[in-house]
Specification:
Smr_assoc-like_sf, 7 helices, SH3 type barrels, Ribosomal Protein S8, Chain: A, domain 1, Smr_dom, alpha+beta, DUF2027, single chain, Immunoglobulin-like, 5-stranded antiparallel beta sheet, 3 domains
Length: 327
């Protein structure tokens, strides 16, 4: 089951769409008129797209006209969330990359592959509800050099309503998280690796639309060049990875939890430094057992954006700091 899937209660007649997954194996379902109810996961079943089509009664053809004075009724449940980027294996070497709309929104979108200073347009257009579009293919042997997938989208439906803010999501695949995202791909109903793009995109947009975002999407759809925007904050020149600098109650953490926290901070700051065009950044890791230093050096040695790294600030930290030179 995925966000946006249409479902039916096992012991009832209600139908709705999955809005969120809650703790305790509970799913939040949006039913008629926008009401949301929590139900146990084993109390619902998904409705297949084929069944949904068979249940829809044919309507007489009518001319669609945009009218500002018409408010679209919310009698039926409306899937607001469920936009994904998915990787599906063709064989043991190649994967296809898809953008998926498992919502009831109409989505004007652009998709760009950003690699170092070069950006490649993958696709642009309008993604209808419950549809997908193939963007490109990637090779598993090139995993470490896969580009950052930059997805921009607007939300549209007829009538008067409040829109979510425009979607702007960058996905950089990491080995540690990529394989954790394995599951059933919505709409395509195949096994793959799935990233939800709108998981945190719940805020509503104030009246009016951002001219910058609208202009950027329009330019991309017309094939015009658009300067890449960076939304990652610029990190400090020196990052201290000592656990007491990162969390308050570090004494309650296990060794594995401490190392994980330190590596997460390292990865996020290195990525931000690269995205902001910094020439170098220094990480203070201490001497200690050498576990943190060794893992940092292992990851730096595999990062294509790192020109070189070396011990830094010896007069102050001995061998407890590493200077990273960025390409």
């Amino acid at each position: 089951m995925n966000i946006g899937d249409k479902v039916r209660l096992v012991h009832g007649r209600e139908e709705g769409v999955i809005y969120a997954f809650l703790p305790g194996n509970v799913v939040e379902i949006e039913i008629e008129d926008g009401f949301r109810i929590p139900v146990l996961r084993n109390e619902i079943v998904t409705i297949s797209p084929v069944e949904s089509q068979r249940m829809v009664k044919p309507e007489e053809a009518k001319v669609a006209a945009a009218r500002a004075d018409v408010i679209v009724p919310r009698n039926a449940p409306f899937a607001e969330k469920g936009i994904y980027l998915a990787f599906i294996s063709v064989n043991d070497r190649t994967l296809t990359v898809h953008v998926i709309n498992n919502t009831d929104w109409v989505l004007p979108f652009t998709a760009v592959a950003a690699s170092e200073s070069v950006s490649k347009g993958l696709a642009a257009g309008v993604l209808q509800p419950r549809t997908s579009q193939k963007l490109t293919e990637v090779e598993m042997k090139d995993f470490e050099s896969w580009p950052v997938f930059d997805i921009h989208a607007l939300y549209f439906r007829e009538g008067n309503h409040q829109l979510p803010i425009a979607l702007n999501k960058r996905i950089r695949c990491r080995a540690q998280s990529f394989y954790k995202n394995k599951g059933k791909v919505p709409v395509l109903a195949k096994e793959g690796f799935v990233y939800q793009l709108d998981e945190e995109n719940l805020k509503r947009e104030a009246p009016g639309i951002s001219e910058d975002v609208a202009g950027e999407i329009k330019a991309r759809m017309l094939g015009q060049s658009v300067p890449e925007q960076n939304n990652l904050p610029r990190p400090e020149q020196v990052i201290d990875l000592h656990i007491e600098k990162l969390v308050n109650n570090h004494k309650s953490l296990s060794s594995d939890a401490i190392l994980k926290k330190q590596l997460d901070v390292f990865e996020s700051n290195l990525e931000s430094a690269i995205a902001n065009g910094m020439d170098e950044i220094t990480f203070i890791h201490g001497a200690g057992s050498g576990a943190l230093k060794n893992e940092l050096h292992r990851r730096l040695g595999k990062n294509q954006h790192v020109q070189f790294f070396k011990d830094a600030l010896k007069e102050k930290f001995g061998y407890g700091a590493t200077l990273v030179k960025i390409k």
